[in-house]
Amino acid sequence: MSILDPKPLTPVSAAAQAADPATTFGAALSATILDQIDTVAADPAGPIQTAVVTATEGKTNVAAIASFSTLKAGLAEGARSMAVQLLGDSTGNETTEWFYKFANAMRTNYPGWTVHYKLWDDAAQNYLATTVLQTGTAGVRSISNAVGTTTRRLDPTVSTNITGVIDARVKLSLSDWTPGAQVNLGGRSGGAGFRGWYMFINTAGVPGFVYSVDGTALTTVFGTATAGIADGGTTWLRYLFTPDDGAGNRVTKFYKSTDNVTWTQVGATVTTAGAVTVNQPVWGYELGGVAGGAIATTAGTVNIYEVEIRNGENGPNVVPALPDLWPPYDLNAIRSSGAPVLTFVNGSKPGGDSAYLGDAVRLPKLTPAYGQAVTMISNSHNEGLAMDKVWLDKYETLRQAVETRLPGSSTVILTQNPETSGTTWYREHRARRLNLLGYARAKGVDIIDSYRAFLDYGAVWETDLMADAVHPNPAGSDLWAATVREAFDATA
Question: What is d(CA 454, CA 449) in angstroms, rounded to the nearest whole number?
């Protein structure tokens, strides 16, 4: 049985369970799970998870929520990549915890999809390398340049101006890394009067960067070495252009990487006297070429798998990360092939609170555009004494900022798990759960009361489901994942 197999829901009250714990699912859980906890990390879809789901079927009191409907419809159609975003704390950042377990469950139940998992790295203020949980049956998704096709292009109104450092990255493969014609990879540059910048690979396999300061005249910066990739090989290429280094120069660097985290510089740094300001044309970002025209290349197969255009060095990505999320320029635009990608974007930080998650500089980096259909907000443990209006005002600010940042994503509130009695803030955390239940009703926002699932387990939830006073153990995380699963399953 899979964790996503839909089952009917039959509510069971906490009072009934507490009155007769020997016959409730709480006792069944404690009898079948606790001796297997040590094995869950090695097999997150194994006996512990199965036992939790078996024992809790129909007993988590979770109703359908509308926010899952877009995700569910998209997964059924399988036409376009999507993502599930989490903004949370230390109860969801580990591979033994509920969000990773939910991602693995989705992987199992949607074999046609490629499933990726990304985890926030607080030290780097960026995401770690992508973990590939599964490659879909149709293979890796990409767009493939060909003679006669046109680019994919964003509308100018959603093409953020970058007035400083441009940090552009592309994951690609070439059948011939010394191509027969220059391969233009994309940028923001149209015809005369609308030129800004773009990146390319020349016929010798050397990366290059082109920019304009007046919208018409172009300046080209060539790298000093090839990327050294074997024909047919895949790599990340990075084009880092600093128009003003603060010392009166403009600086260009080229890099390669296998994971978009650790970079090796390609060739020498190119430093040119004279700071410049790159033109910001009324023209959208393009991928797979420039100027919206036919891609005149005889380079063979050019596959693009992922792209980032970052506002500043290691800044936030201002474009969709996956090529199939870019709109076509016209009916002749490059088409995607391969399995669609479902990305679980885990923006959880131990100790993170609403101020951390909603920070105006950090939030755009926490929420890179992977086609988020759902954003789960799971934070309450780290809010100290705050409750009632003080707490809800902070929560509202965070939710509004997230929905502005990801306008196509539905918000789901999670009440997390209870803290054991005697913990410093357990009373306040308990009050915030009630605040959120009322807030969700008042605002019309979907909520999953994962907190209740722990209480409904029975009187022994503190010993059976908790690793310490605040954090669930693997069995508790399984119950949490099963609760989210029930809401997903119940959604039409």
Answer: 10
Contacts (Cβ under 8 Å, ≥6 apart) of 202: 182, 208, 222
How far apart (Å, rounded) are the C-alpha atoms in residues 121 and 377? 18
- How far apart, in Å, are the Cα atoms of 413 and each of 88, 374, 440, 479? 11, 11, 8, 17
* Half-sphere exposure (Cβ direction) of 127: Cα atoms closer than 13 Å: 30
Two structure tokens written together for 387: 């409750």
Q: How far apart are CA 285 and CA 308, in angstroms?
A: 11
Task: State the Cα torsion 395-401-405-410 to the nearest 10°.
Answer: 40
**For the segment 398-447, what is each residue's pLDDT rounded down to a tens digit?**
999 999 999 999 999 999 999 999 889 999 999 999 999 999 999 999 99
Domain 142-337 class in CATH: mainly beta
**Residue range 27-138+341-490, CATH number:** 3.40.50.1110
**What does the pLDDT look like over 442-470, one tens digit per residue?**
999 999 999 999 999 999 999 999 999 99
Q: Return the domain boundaries, the chain.
A: 27-138+341-490, 142-337
Do 369 and 317 touch, CB atoms closer than 8 A? yes
Please check the confidence at residue 341 and state whether its pLDDT lies above 70: yes
Instruction: Name the packing angle between helices 474-490 and 68-77 (round to 10°).
Output: 80
Q: For residue 293, how many other CB atoms are within 10 A of its CB? A: 13
Q: What is the mean pLDDT of residues 252-279?
A: 98
**Burial tier of 430 (Cβ tally within 10 Å: 0-12, 13-18, 19+):** middle
Q: Please give the span between the terminal C-alpha atoms of the chain, in angstroms, as a whole number.
A: 21
Q: What is the pLDDT of residue 386?
A: 96
pTM above 0.85, yes or no: yes
CA distance 175 to 182: 14
